[in-house]
Amino acid sequence: MELSERLAIARKERGMTQREVAEKLDVSFQAVSLWERGETSPDIDKLVDLAFLYQVTTDWLLTGVEEENVFIDFQASLSDRLFDEGRMYTYIKTYASVKKLYQTSKVLPYARELHKGQIRKGKDKVPYIYHPLLISCHALALGLDDDNLISTALLHDVCEDCGIPADELPVNKETQTAVFLLTKNSIDEEQYFARISQNAVATMVKLLDRCNNISSMAVGFSKEKMAEYIKETERWFYPLLQKAKYEFPMYSNQIFLIKYHMTSVIEVIKHQF
């Protein structure tokens, strides 16, 4: 049985018409029809939406094999789950499967298990795995779908927070090196950022990490902590952005967008002090 046939079966079992599916997913009726005829395939984000809508797993849609659909609450709307851990986990898992990011597929459950029971600091107590998942989704949304980069994003805190040496991580040497560079250890800030700036993967993950933290600091930081964080960002991350722009031109578009977002948020917050 092909993907197209499983899409049609799942829709019919939910008692929905192709037009109703199209309206739910904000696509054309013709798109749904083409998917079910096997003439085209849904994009990865639409495939995840279809799995939620039909209350099946993406594994079943893609392969016909049923696996545990982690974290998913089918009662919530699609928009409510945009940044839900389950939705992000499923999105990355599906993306890795479709794009053949084999290392990411292996690292995803590994990172979740390592961070199990850990809570992110801040006013909103959320599972720590939310953070690497969000950074990875951010990277994919920017077109950064390199297997080593996404694996590094998922693992970037495990050495420091879980006590796992970088050279024992179940990944290739390039990813081990990037994770090692992102682990602070006992070196000072200048050394830390100098060594990160020499590695493209470590640089992009560090920038995405800071961009993510800046986006959420208004709800998780005190006013004093925000001021300190902004000062730190201007001291270390703005130069890193500038250097990355010239050192890693293949990421110039993504660097521009990250810089735009970071500076926009910071300037708004600074005007509120």
Tell me what you see in this structure.
The structure is a single chain. This protein has 2 domains: 1-65, lambda repressor-like DNA-binding domains (434 Repressor (Amino-terminal Domain), Orthogonal Bundle); 70-270, Hypothetical protein af1432 (Orthogonal Bundle), CATH 1.10.3210.10. With 273 residues, it is mainly α. Helix 6 (85-99) crosses helix 8. 67% of the residues lie in helices and 0% in strands. It has 15 helices and no strands. It has helices at 3-13, 18-25, 29-37, 44-54, 58-63, 85-99, 102-114, 130-141, 147-155, 158-162, 173-182, 189-196, 200-220, 223-247, 252-270.
Oligomer: single chain
Q: What level of helicity do the residues show?
A: 55-70%
Largest sheet: none
Briefly note the CATH topology name of the largest domain. Hypothetical protein af1432
Molecular shape: globular
By secondary-structure content and strand pairing, the structural class works out as: mainly alpha
CATH class of the largest domain: Mainly Alpha
Strand segment tally: 0
Please count the helical segments: 15
Distance between the termini: 60 Å
Unreliable sequence segments: 68-82
Tell me the CATH architecture of the largest domain.
Orthogonal Bundle
In round numbers, the mean pLDDT is 89
Number of domains: 2
The helix/strand series, from N terminus to C terminus, equals: HHHHHHHHHHHHHHH
How much beta, percentage-wise?
Answer: under 5%
Q: What is the name of the CATH superfamily of the largest domain? A: Hypothetical protein af1432
